[in-house]
Amino acid sequence: MDIIQAIENRHSVRSYTGEPIPDEKAGMLLSVIDQCNRAGNLRFQLVRNEPKAFSSPLARYGKFSGVMDYIAVVGPKSADLEEKCGYYGEKLVLEAQMIGLNTCWVGLTYRKIPGTITVGRGEKLLGVISVGYGRTQGVPRRSKSISDICSITGNEPEWFIRGLHAVLLAPTAVNQQKFRFSYKDGRVRAESGSGFYTRTDLGIAKYHFETASGKGPEIWE
User: Fold this and answer.
1) Residue 52: is it exposed, middle or buried by C-beta count within 10 angstroms (0-12/13-18/19+)?
2) pTM (predicted TM-score)
3) Which residues of 176-213 are buried (b: 16+ CB within 10 A; e: fewer)?
4) Lowest CB count within 10 Å: 8, 12, 39, 96, which one?
C-alpha cells in the first residue's frame, strides 16, 4: 500500500482486537515519531500495552474498546502548535495505515494515566491517536464537495484539484471539515474556520494536500 492508497483506504477505527503491536511495527512507528519530533519540534510519544486510558466510562461513551496502544500528541505551547500536531500526527496515521494498523484521532474520550505520558513545563498534551489492529477497517464518512471548500474558477492546475480531493478525505473533529482553500499564481491559501480542533484539522488537511499534490510547504501563502 502506498500513501495515496492509505489516504483513500484509511477510516477512523474505535474498536480494536487488543492484539499487541509487533516490535517490528512499533519500531517503524517510533522511527517516524522521531522524524516528526525533530522536524516539528514536538514530543510525540508511543504508549504501548496500556489499557487504562480507554477503560473509563468516557471512553465507552466514545465507543472505544480494545485500545492497548496510542500515540500521545505533545508539543511546546505556541500559536501554531495545533496545526503542527495535525500535520505531523496525520503523517503518523498514514504511516500506520501503510503497515497494516488502524487509528483514530482522540481529543476528549480518554484519560491521562500517571506515568505514561511526559508533558514538560511549557508543553501541552493536545490529544492522542489510538493505534492497533481494528476489528474492522472502519467505514467511509459523509464528505463535503470541492465546491464547499473552494471557489473554483477553472484556472486551477490539475495538481491543485488533486490535492483538494485528498483534503476531502482528511479526518476532522466530528466530521466538521471547517476549512477553505484557494489558489492564486502558483500559491495556495488554506484557512481554518472557527470551532474546536479546527486548527488541528487544518494541519491534517494540509498534509493530505501536500501528499496528493506532490507539492511541499513552499506552496502555502
Assistant:
1) middle
2) 0.96
3) ebbbebbbeeeebebebeeeebbbbbbbbbbbbbbbbb
4) 39
pLDDT tops 90 at residue 56: no
CATH number of the domain enclosing 102: 3.40.109.10
Report the CATH number that the domain containing residue 190 is assigned in CATH.
3.40.109.30
Confidence of residue 59 (pLDDT cuts 50, 70, 90): low
- Same domain membership, residue 91 and residue 65: yes
Q: What's the one-letter identity of residue 25?
A: K
Do residues 150 and 173 share a domain?
Answer: yes
138: left (phi over 0), alpha (psi -120 to 50) or beta: left
Place of cell 514536538: 42
